[in-house]
User: Fold Multicopper oxidase from Riccia sorocarpa.
Amino acid sequence: MVSSCRIWFCDLGFDLAHTKIVLFAAILGWQLSSGRADHYQCTGGGTVYSPILTPFIDELPTSQSIKIQNGSQLVLGAYKITQVLHSNLTATTLYAYGTSEATATYPGPTLEALRNTTSYVRIENYINDTETFLMTDRTIGWADPPNGGVPIVTHLHGGQFQSDSDGHPDGWYTAAGDYGPTFSSKNHTYPNTQPATLLFYHDHTVGITRITVLSGLLGLYIIRSPTEEPSNLPSGDNEIPLVIQDKTFWENGSIAFPDIGVSPSNHPNWCPGYLGDTILVNGKVWPYLKVYPEKYRFRMLNGANARFFTLTLSNATLRFIQIGTDGGFLPNPLNLTELTLAPANRADVIIDFTNITVGTSVYMNNSAPAPFPDTNAALNPPGVNSVMEFRIVARKGRRSRNNYAIPSNMTTTPNFTYDLTKDVYRQFMFDQTVDADGNPIHILMNNATWTDPVTETPTLGSVEIWDLINFLPDAHPIHIHLINFLVVHQQAFNATTYTANECSLAVEYPDSGTCFSEGPQEPNSTLVGWKDTVISYPSTVIRIWTRWTNREGGSFPFNASEGPGYLWHCHFLDHEDNDMMRPLIVLQ
Ligand SMILES: *[C@@H]1O[C@H](CO)[C@@H](O)[C@H](O)[C@H]1NC(C)=O
Ligand SMILES: *[C@@H]1O[C@H](CO)[C@@H](O)[C@H](O)[C@H]1NC(C)=O
Ligand SMILES: *[C@@H]1O[C@H](CO)[C@@H](O)[C@H](O)[C@H]1NC(C)=O
Ligand SMILES: *[C@@H]1O[C@H](CO)[C@@H](O)[C@H](O)[C@H]1NC(C)=O
Ligand SMILES: *[C@@H]1O[C@H](CO)[C@@H](O)[C@H](O)[C@H]1NC(C)=O
Ligand SMILES: *[C@@H]1O[C@H](CO)[C@@H](O)[C@H](O)[C@H]1NC(C)=O
Ligand SMILES: *[C@@H]1O[C@H](CO)[C@@H](O)[C@H](O)[C@H]1NC(C)=O
Ligand SMILES: *[C@@H]1O[C@H](CO)[C@@H](O)[C@H](O)[C@H]1NC(C)=O
Ligand SMILES: *[C@@H]1O[C@H](CO)[C@@H](O)[C@H](O)[C@H]1NC(C)=O
Ligand SMILES: *[C@@H]1O[C@H](CO)[C@@H](O)[C@H](O)[C@H]1NC(C)=O
Ligand SMILES: *[C@@H]1O[C@H](CO)[C@@H](O)[C@H](O)[C@H]1NC(C)=O
Ligand SMILES: *[C@@H]1O[C@H](CO)[C@@H](O)[C@H](O)[C@H]1NC(C)=O
Ligand SMILES: [Cu+2]
Assistant:
């Protein structure tokens, strides 16, 4: 049953999509029975399914775009709203950013800044709930405001600015006026001196980020730079942002969030990784987008809590021509049949629909298993294999825009030489503590928690080599604030023999560890280019080159040692909330 569905999704396209999804859902009993529990557990899986939703009946929304290039302050608020996320679904309660309660949307408005022009963004908290509507776990380290309420603090992911504008997790504030210990200001100053790219802003409050982001507190932020852009990139209506996420719904339209913990005697409500059974793009479940037979530029974000996406296109002649990553343009485009995005990864991608027949459709599908990468994707609930539809329509009234071009080179290859006898070298082991049943209690980096003393203290201007070593069976997206970094190499090792103390990992240089099952490999397509979030694959060492300067190797136009400091963490929001997150201080 499941595998035939998978074949259907991946190989046969969607000609009979509506009938088949409904039919398939009915066969599987893929619908909630009439009664519903208010709470459900994260173990045991598959106990709650969204109601049956017909795919591709809602048009892809492109959220309001706000240009913040003129130096005046933009004021956004965080509000509680309801929004229809699918035509077959009752409006969903959400938290959302916007310039007013009436205009707040999920995802929030797309903010557009110009390189080297400072943006000033103030964020007010207008959420007067007494607590998050998805259940907070009060036993993990969380904000815990003395007068209740929903604390927020906003981080601009991938941005480079002083840490008092960074949205430090302990710098939260509530509508009632309580403030976390590292609160600096609701006003954020973003100098935008980094290269042109796609960033995103989202809530980062300690211990509840998985909840506030799943509830809707995120939006895109584009830094434009006309002098960096190759000429004739698809633009205007041919440049489309795509925020891809997953959610499960109760029959009444509200978000279904498992809140009976995986190890309830330790953490009654915390679950290790939220996975929904429907896919949303720009806040609609399985939307369609009308496209002309032309080139399109898609600015993609994986905004999921814990789901990786490996995107494919139903017409095998089409490719994802990836021109940019987290940190902006790649040196040369990648020509990909599948595009893998970890949570928080961005991709700048051209798809050329020029030769696709008007009146036909192309489907963007997902083949990533969850957990990623080594479980069986055939176990996915069928809905997560489908992302969105592109309907090819004729451009009326004027000739098609054929002058859009795919560039052959966008920027120069960065220099990343290093010397392990001189540069600081750090090893990080990712592991978890488990209860008697083997269920995770905390996911940790070098056994340390968020509140343990800072150990990562790079000096301004220095290069540090970090080895990210993953002993866990699944991949973790590792995010470092303030800088972009490059992957030097990836190298698989045998975690079983290492854990049994039968061999060693590289403690002498270079790479002399005896646990490695291969030599250092060039970073593959999921790991190339400037990153702020990198996939740490299981049983693999990912060696990254970090330089504590601006992207060009010069000084930051701000004091990186001022303020509450930065951090680095797993971008599985459910992991960062439960201690896979560490402080980071930049020394002068
Ligand atoms: C969803 O709505 C569409 C359009 O209104 C309708 O055709 C379809 O039957 C509905 N699907 C379900 C499962 O109710
Ligand atoms: C939230 O609080 C503000 C200010 O006290 C009030 O104006 C508003 O009506 C409240 N909103 C709700 C939904 O209760
Ligand atoms: C923050 O912005 C507000 C609104 O513009 C302004 O009144 C206030 O002085 C600013 N605060 C700081 C610390 O800059
Ligand atoms: C922005 O500033 C950087 C560093 O000073 C400079 O290299 C770059 O050319 C500038 N870019 C634009 C678009 O002004
Ligand atoms: C991508 O690769 C395919 C297969 O090799 C090739 O046919 C196509 O021309 C390439 N596209 C671009 C834009 O390089
Ligand atoms: C796939 O696209 C090619 C053009 O690139 C077109 O000729 C072909 O008919 C398409 N296939 C399907 C199944 O639509
Ligand atoms: C479209 O078809 C023309 C004519 O067959 C061919 O020359 C061109 O390479 C095709 N373009 C793409 C993007 O497939
Ligand atoms: C791309 O390559 C051309 C030809 O070598 C060169 O003139 C141009 O400067 C390069 N563009 C970039 C952005 O590196
Ligand atoms: C590359 O880096 C090395 C060492 O950091 C430095 O000596 C060299 O000048 C750099 N080259 C360029 C082209 O920046
Ligand atoms: C973490 O703690 C466990 C149990 O105390 C220990 O076996 C392991 O070596 C520690 N790992 C690191 C990287 O310190
Ligand atoms: C790890 O090493 C052990 C002992 O040599 C071997 O049996 C096992 O197959 C290896 N595992 C992997 C994944 O290579
Ligand atoms: C990249 O490398 C990882 C780790 O070896 C592997 O699991 C993954 O499949 C590779 N992805 C691609 C696209 O090559
Ligand atoms: Cu993680």
Notes: Residues 429, 446-447 surround 2-acetamido-2-deoxy-beta-D-glucopyranose (ligand 10) (CB under 6 Å).
